[in-house]
Amino acid sequence: MNVITNIFKSSLGKKYIMAISGLVLFLFVAAHLAGNLQFFLGPEAINRYGHFLQSNVELLWPARIFLLLVIGLHIWSAIKLSIENKAARPVAYANWNPTVASYASRTMLMSGIIIFVFIIYHLLHYTVLVKSINFTGTDFSSLEDAEGRHDIFRMMVLGFSNPLVSGFYIFGIALLCLHLSHGVSAMFQSLGWKSKAYGPCLDKAAKVIAWLIFLGYVAIPISVLLGYGKAMK
After folding, report:
1. Distance from the CA of 105 to the CA of which of 1, 57, 145, 165 falls in 20 to 30 A?
2. Quick one: which H or E segment has residue 70?
3. What residue ranges define each of the domains in the chain, with the CATH number in brackets?
């Protein structure tokens, strides 16, 4: 118990919490993208995938609760470390040069807060299925395909057909990937897995991964806005 208490109280422990929770969230983002990209395989593939997840409630809800806990730990550790860093340096550097640090690294806390707001909206939109915020006038929970499954394909087409919704989604994903472009590399540094020898390679790899994730996610709303899926919904 003392070990756990020390982890939560010490700055090093908070860095480990932020790094490990960040790793878990990164893996989820990648896995979620792999699932979402089944949208391009057509209604049958994405609806079957969604039905599989929704049918295994005993796995789905523990996973959701675990992810919410991880998000909470990630935000808590980030805020606590930010407060501690400011307390340790109450007077700003006289010759501080913002170009030394990347824009992503300087905006990690702010982008993280905005991403959290985006996640809440995204969950209300496509998971809780709150009708008033989808801006289509359609109750997404009533959509069913020929097999009686929730018609996720049609829901995504309808949802992303609204330019404002797609624009906010793209903006949220852009911030997420900006966050990842620094966070993935910082994660290795916090865990002590980054050295001067291959540190620059990790920094470049983090940016490449962030770009790939960004392109994968935004391909869906952009393709819908360009007309994909509207003949099949």
Report:
1. 165
2. helix 57-88
3. 2-225 (1.20.1300)
Q: What's the predicted TM-score (pTM) here? A: 0.84
CA 104/CA 98 separation, integer angstroms: 11
The contacts of residue 214 (CB under 8 Å, 6+ apart) are: 173, 174, 176, 177
Q: How many alpha carbons fall within 13 Å on the CB side of residue 144?
A: 5
- 159 φ, ψ to 5°? -65, -45
